[in-house]
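Hi all, a correction to my earlier message: I attached the wrong file for NADH dehydrogenase (Ubiquinone), 24 kDa subunit. Here's the right sequence:
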Amino acid sequence: MTMERREPVEAMVARLLAAQGERRGALLPLLHDLQEELGFVGEETVAAVAAAMNLSRAEVHGVVSFYHDFRKAPAGRHVVKYCRAESCRSRGGVAIEAALADRLRVTMGETRADGQVTLEPVYCLGLCAIGPNALVDGAPVARIDDAAAIERIAARVAA
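and the right structure:
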């Protein structure tokens, strides 16, 4: 994911849209590609996508706001996605989430002021048998059930 943009967002949208070809339903893959390159899907990007796909800004914004994976602002250098699904919650996930947020010094759903880490909720990582779980920069971390597990996550974020 590149946070520093080297090409205008309109050109990026055109390039990524062309890569989709004549594929129906290109909006969602395009938005994922844009987030991968930009790190988020902001208002400028929404406007460029709407213009390129002959959609209203409201239509594009509706998709961006519906899917939790799309960020409207840049994420931190590290992204921790913590599972809030029932299976993880039933294994002490609520207390672990609070301890993790406290240890990382960030509120759930926000980016720490120094830009080092973003803590995001997710609602199932498919690792229910070994929860509570998280993704740290896309890598799964399972059995987050004690202070040592939280420290391992904190160490990865500090690196």
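Sorry for the mix-up. Residues 9-66 form one domain.
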